[in-house]
User: Which sequence fits this backbone?
């Protein structure tokens, strides 16, 4: 018994280290997608699996920069859909992309406020008002970079109460009532339903975020990876993406 | 045969740190560590972790004594409740704090209306979050020591005519000092590394609420080298604190 335990432990460690191959005849397609794509890609996953029998699409949803790091560190990934070009470039510079990435969707900022807009926010310039608690994304993440761009374009400087690490955290601060207004993407407001209202502002045109997708050169299933990419780029993908609020490239 | 699992345990703790050291960009290290954002984060982390450790000691010592010495059944239930922050995911802890002290939380609403005080997004919120997650470490280590020691010295002191407060000050506290030391170090270390409750409850703003762990996460988005350098700084601070506060622990003496 004394000798068994360490041996069993070692087995567990080894098995979990190489646990990506499914032993039951199904093929796994690993799709790494930005967190903002959760809803749209969830629907596309089902469609793809319905069209391809024996294929299990696994979505890994996280911040684009985390996904890019994971891919560059050798995580098993077949397709990468990023929320901005910078993180796709990181993977491309490391030689991880097959062919050229293609833009499949756009997203832009909007102001999330409490339902009914009780504080009467009317546009971007209002966010500098002193009576408002405003929350934005940190400059290091895509939504924060877009926020900075809009600030530069409008000459309005914000004094946020917090610079959050991702756009969902900003949205949550508004939903919980801790912040009066937050800068998020149009798609985030769509997915929040009636929990928040949004105030669109024309200056958001100055910072449009482009979403690139690519099949990866390390793909275990290169043919399936290309097919999934084409599904996203095609008519079906367009429909799902539009439904959740993404713009066309 | 203990050495195999012991070796595995050691490897699990040490090897990731070795990985971190191997990945550090030593040439850029001074430049990365002395940036304004890093120094602000370090300063904020040290100040808040010290404050929350002090709070943990001031509030946790009486709590541990009450828990260890009471014989009522209700107190035994309380002991389990005190451990909650240990098992709660920190993000959930942060949400719980928001629901209590946030603008729509019942205490937070009261504070806002009566005193005009708002806790979220302030350094106070960071200290509260750190105290919340760190306190159980202090209480648990003290309570264990108290139970081990028993209360015969206190009873003797009382029969010799000492008042309860004198007994607590002159007998209980000195007996507890070693456990208090290790409990305080544990609390400080936990407060220093606190991330989830802080980012949920206090937000993240340079110089106000962005402590070192939050800055590491922030930098990891843009520049992994910088995040690794900061993580190294966090490790160095933790090791220094352990070495200074518990030199005997390092030498293996009891």
Assistant:
């Amino acid at each position: 018994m004394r000798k068994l335990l360490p041996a069993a432990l070692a087995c567990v460690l080894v098995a979990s280290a190489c646990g990506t191959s499914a032993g039951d005849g199904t093929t796994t397609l690993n799709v790494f997608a930005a967190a903002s794509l959760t809803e749209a890609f969830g629907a596309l996953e089902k469609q793809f699996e319905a069209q391809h029998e024996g294929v299990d699409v696994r979505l890994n949803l996280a911040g684009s920069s985390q996904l890019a790091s994971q891919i560059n560190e050798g995580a098993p990934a077949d397709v990468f859909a990023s929320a901005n070009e910078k993180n796709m470039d990181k993977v491309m510079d490391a030689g991880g992309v097959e062919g050229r990435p293609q833009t499949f969707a756009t997203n832009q900022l909007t102001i999330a406020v409490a339902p009914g807009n009780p504080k009467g926010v009317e546009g971007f310039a209002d966010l500098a008002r002193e009576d408002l608690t405003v929350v934005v994304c940190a400059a290091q993440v895509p939504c924060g970079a877009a926020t900075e761009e809009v600030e530069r374009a409008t000459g309005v400087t914000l004094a946020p109460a917090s610079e959050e690490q991702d756009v969902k955290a900003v949205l949550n601060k508004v939903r919980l009532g801790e912040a009066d207004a937050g800068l998020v993407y149009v798609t985030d407001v769509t997915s929040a339903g009636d929990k928040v209202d949004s105030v669109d502002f024309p200056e958001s045109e100055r910072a449009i975020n482009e979403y690139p997708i690519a099949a990866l050169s390390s793909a275990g299933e290169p043919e399936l990876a290309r097919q999934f990419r084409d599904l996203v780029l095609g008519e079906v993908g367009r429909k799902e993406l539009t439904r959740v609020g993404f713009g066309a490239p | 045969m203990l050495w195999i699992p012991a070796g595995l345990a050691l490897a699990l703790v040490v090897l990731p740190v070795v990985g971190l050291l191997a990945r550090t960009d030593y040439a850029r290290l001074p430049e990365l560590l002395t940036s304004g954002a890093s120094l602000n984060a370090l300063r904020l982390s040290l100040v808040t972790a010290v404050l929350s450790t002090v709070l943990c000691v001031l509030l946790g010592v009486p709590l541990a004594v009450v828990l260890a010495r009471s014989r009522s059944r209700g107190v035994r239930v309380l002991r389990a409740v005190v451990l909650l922050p240990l098992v709660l995911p920190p993000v959930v802890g942060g949400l719980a704090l928001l629901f209590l002290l946030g603008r729509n939380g019942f205490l937070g609403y009261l504070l806002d209306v009566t005193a005009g005080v708002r806790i979220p997004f302030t350094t106070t919120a960071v200290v509260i979050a750190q105290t919340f997650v760190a306190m159980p470490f202090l209480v648990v280590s003290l309570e264990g020591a108290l139970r081990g020691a028993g209360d015969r010295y206190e009873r003797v002191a009382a029969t010799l005519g000492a008042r309860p407060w004198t007994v607590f000050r002159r007998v209980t506290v000195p007996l507890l000092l070693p456990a208090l030391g290790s409990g305080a170090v544990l609390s400080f270390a936990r407060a220093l590394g606190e991330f989830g409750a802080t980012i949920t409850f206090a937000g993240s703003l340079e110089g106000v609420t962005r402590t070192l762990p939050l800055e590491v996460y922030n930098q990891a988005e843009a520049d992994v080298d910088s995040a690794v350098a900061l993580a190294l700084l966090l490790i160095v601070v933790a090791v220094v604190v352990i070495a200074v506060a518990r030199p005997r622990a390092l030498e293996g003496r009891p």
